[in-house]
Design a protein that fits this description.
By secondary structure, the protein is mainly alpha-helical. It has six helices and no strands. The two termini are 14 Å apart.
């Protein structure tokens, strides 16, 4: 489990570093996004991953790793938006945003560690394409919950689905970053 935690920390740092750089470039312009728009951004990224997996080639000189990073970061944005609600203006500064990023990543990571313990790292035996399919499933579940105005009868909410999408993306990033760690 120590190797697993180190691998998670490494890929999370990759995601956070890019997030912080984009935050400097654009500010928190994403604060205007309604939750449905965040979900659709994640959908675009997951569909691109699946397209590359199916076609075996990308015409844009980027592989699937940047898309997994994007899903992680948009998932965190989604969690922030669920907590704060969307805004009509950029109302958070860099320090506030990074503190919220770290808070939501810590919560997501703790959920992953608990599930990882219970499932005994079963994700390591999975294919990256399965993570893509599971992310797409979680997106469509989220879209349905959004259509239901956030209400569920027996299912987890939007926040749990975002956390699962983040964690499946982190699994994919670990497999891409540390291919020797596959079981």
């Amino acid at each position: 489990m120590a190797d697993t935690k180190a691998q998670f920390e490494k890929v999370i740092e990759i995601c956070r570093t890019l997030f912080a750089k984009k935050l400097k470039d654009y500010g928190a312009s994403w604060r205007i996004l309604r939750p449905q728009s965040v979900t659709d951004q994640i959908l675009i990224k997951a569909k691109r991953i699946r397209s590359i997996e199916e076609k075996g080639v990308s015409l844009i000189d980027e592989g699937i790793a940047p898309e997994f990073v994007g899903i992680v970061n948009y998932g965190i944005i989604g969690l922030i938006q669920l907590e704060l609600g969307f805004s009509d203006s950029v109302d958070l500064d860099e320090d506030q945003v990074l503190a919220l990023y770290d808070k939501h990543m810590a919560q997501t990571k703790e959920l992953m560690y608990a599930k990882n313990h219970d499932y005994d790292e079963a994700w390591r035996a999975m294919r990256i394409s399965s993570y893509t399919d599971l992310i797409l499933t979680k997106i469509y579940r989220t879209k349905q919950i959004e259509e239901n105005k956030g209400q569920t009868i027996v299912s987890e909410g939007i926040d749990a689905n975002y956390m699962d999408m983040i964690n499946y993306s982190l699994f994919g990033l670990i497999k891409l970053e540390f291919p020797e760690s596959e079981n």
